[in-house]
Amino acid sequence: MIHYRDLGLVNTRAMFAAAVHGGFAVPAYNFNNMEQLQAIVLACLETQSPVILQVSKGARDYADETLLRYLGQGAVAMMKRVAAEKGLGEIPITLHLDHGDSYELCVSCIETGFSSVMIDGSHLAYEDNCELTRRVVAYAHRFDVTVEGELGVLAGVEDDVSAESHTYTKPEEVQDFLARTGVDSLAISIGTSHGAYKFKPGQNPEIRLDILREIETRIPGFPIVLHGSSSVPPEAVDTINRYGGRLQDSIGIPEAQLREAARSAVCKINIDSDGRLVMTAAIREVFAVRPAEFDPRKYLGPAREALKAMYQRKNREVLGSAGKAAAILAAIGG
Fold it and tell me: How many domains does the chain have?
């Protein structure tokens, strides 16, 4: 058993309390390799934002669970070193399992140093979702690991998570679900979608803020999570298509709607596809402009810088998390 505190990580409790009261959302960025991890940590350090490093089941299989533990520990070490070199304050970092699909997977992540896990039983019948989530919470809380549950189903495809259509969260179920499971945060379905093809051409991209507001009235102040919140930057899509890609009709969530949601009880916003698109766009451009290039540093380096710039802008302009790290660390220390 490796406890997350031994790796320098934190759980999400103080982050979410600060976010709910401060009108911002903590960025939850997915990563699959070292360059993505570096871009996320450096962007959040330089904007003084808290950050949740997200690992899906697919990413965990891809990177190997032992390597992920070292990456999580390395992320904290890199943050501390760069903070000292640049005279910046340190930031709180959470390592989180995204869309855990079984009790056994959540236990394995907790035992290898994750400080937060999501158990996604949203595809199950309501009673089964409650029971699975309750079991994970009971185990996780023994080690002060925070747990995210989910009600409702998001459309779209991302790694092993796939659904053809939305099942919006029923506001009348949320109080019972929280009481029966003891979760620390709740992912809801209000129209965001997984992947880069969230809406069809001509369709009005809009998330159901009315459902969000009704849920807030039923569980005031409780941390809410939005999955599938990439905005699918058109400039990245254009670059990919310009240099040989075939991403047609890629449409994401308008950032103005995400900013409005972040001012409410939405305290965690998940962003994955935007990172994939920006990274792919930068790599394709290098390959097209310099076709003789074969040094991974020469195409992964520019991709890392493009990612870093995007994450910095998200923190400042969309999530409102820039400058919030110190207060969270103070709350944890106090």
Answer: 1
Which of 98, 101, 120, 159 is labelled catalytic?
98
What's the predicted TM-score (pTM) here?
0.92
Residue in the structure block whose two tokens are 């009315």: 210
Q: Cα–Cα distance between 307 and 310 in angstroms, integer?
A: 5
Task: Give residues with Cβ within 8 angstroms of 85, minimum separation 6.
Answer: none
Q: Please give the radius of gyration of the chain, using alpha carbons only, rounded to the nearest integer.
A: 19
Name the one residue in this structure whose structure tokens are 């808290």: 50
CA 302 to chain centroid, in Å, comes to 23
Whichever domain contains 76, its CATH number is 3.20.20.70
- Taking only the tens of pLDDT, the chain with its 334 residues reads 999 999 999 999 999 999 999 999 999 999 999 999 999 999 999 999 999 999 998 888 887 777 777 788 899 999 999 999 999 999 999 999 999 999 999 999 999 999 999 999 988 999 999 999 999 999 999 999 999 999 987 654 444 544 445 678 999 999 999 999 999 999 998 876 544 444 455 556 677 889 999 999 999 999 999 987 788 899 999 999 999 999 877 678 888 988 988 998 899 999 999 999 999 999 999 999 999 999 999 999 999 999 999 999 999 999 999 999 999 999 998 5
Residue 311, both tokens: 């994450």
For this structure, is 98 an active site residue? yes
Residues ≥6 apart with Cβ < 8 Å to 328: 14, 15, 18, 50, 92
User: DSSP state, 5?
Assistant: G
Q: Which amino acid is at 311?
A: Y
Q: Which residues of 295-333 are buried (b: 16+ CB within 10 A; e: fewer)?
A: eeeebbeebbebbbebbbbbbeebbbbbebbeebbeeee
The 10 Å Cβ neighbour count of residue 67 is 13
Amino acid in position 273: S
